[in-house]
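COURSE: Structural Biology Practicum
ASSIGNMENT: Worksheet 4, Part C
STUDENT ID: 0417
INSTRUCTIONS: Below are two proteins. For each, the amino acid sequence is given first, followed by its structure token string. Answer the questions at the end about the second protein only.

PROTEIN I
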Amino acid sequence: MKEKDTSGTKIVIEGITETGEIFRPSDWAERVSGTLSTFRNHRIYYSPLLRPSIQNENKCVVLDKALKDSNPALYEHILDFARKNNLKICGEDNEI
């Protein structure tokens, strides 16, 4: 589940606030990613456009910038959520 974005097409929202506190609840990344997930054969499948991950030992959400074209409202909602909760956002400034 751990990965590093080298293409610049992804935004990583880290589950740690700008002041260094761990964001709660602990399943926040799965909840946020669940908005585009599907469930089949008793298993959850996360979208490649929005999925949970772990980076720097913290829960994260990896947001593909392609979501901005396919679902701009959801894209902005997720970024607004991160901003309102003062979460670390990496890669937001890199435009496609």
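PROTEIN II
(use this one for the questions)
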Amino acid sequence: MATATYLKDGNGPLTVDYLTTAAVAIDEIVVAGTNGAVSVGVARQVASASGETITVDVGGCYTFPKVSGAVIKAGETVDWDASAGEVDDNQATSATGDVADFGVALADAGNGDTTVKVQLMPGTSAIS
């Protein structure tokens, strides 16, 4: 389970309802949606059991876990690496379940850094 740390609202609080397929903890990162437009979001308000509908933040700024070897520059779009449960740079090779361009890096995060600050971009991403 990957978690994110809330920093601030970006363009105001943007949320979607999300039907859980497994238990979700507070601050857990989830992918809301299916093939087509999806959003990477954070279950910031409440934990839930499987099969419950919860509200997920899909806007705002968060500190996310990052693939250690990824080199990300401020302003660069970032990808969600589903197998690692971490943010990767947008040049990474996509695999099943990864989400492309789900947010924008707010600061540089280099090789060896384990976190990156991200502004979420709701509903604009494509899933592999």
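ANSWER KEY EXCERPT:
Q1: The mean pLDDT is 87.
Q2: The first strand starts at residue 5 and ends at 8.
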